Amino acid sequence: MTLDQYRSLANRLLAPWVRAAKAVGATPNSVSVAAFGLAVAAGAAFYVATPVAYAAGAAFVFLNGWLDLLDGALARELGTDSEAGDMLDHVLDRYADVVVVSGLAAGVDQFALGLAAVTGVLLTSYLGTQAEAVGLDRVYGGLLGRADRLALVGLTGAVTAVVPTVAGYSPVTALLVVFAVVGHLTAVQRFVSAWRQLA
Length: 199
Known about the structure:
Number of strands: 0
Oligomer: single chain
Radius of gyration: 17 Å
Distance between the termini: 26 Å
Helix content: over 70%
Number of helices: 7
Strand content: under 5%
């Protein structure tokens, strides 16, 4: 399961958004910062944990994901892609992951599960970039990449807004379990893939 295989399709859909961003004078870094702001808004909404807040959080997450694609596409279009911009994007993405998952966990009072989920998320991303740091290609795939996580968070927020509990449990709790288990499995999967290439 990975939505990253549809990256080329997303890039084609981004074309009018890239033109619009250029028209208003947006920079890739400003788009990255705006995406992070939306992640903070999503985390806050999930912390509030009301049906309206979950619906708003879902919308914020989808917008965050779209802007996260847009900043790279805009940088390539403007010819301003750089290591500094890439670093800013990745740092903000990791903070965004922490804010969103923490908001989800706090909203359902599942802090221990939230810790397991956020470490799974962070280690998945770390292994993706660590592969590049040792001379391999950056790894985006695996069982649960960032695009998959954002889609699941958005869908879970939308579902929770309509159906707050299923058999006495919040859909958010189930999502945190997925992130905790599958996140760490994805990190291990990426490690094994990189190790085999290096060996």
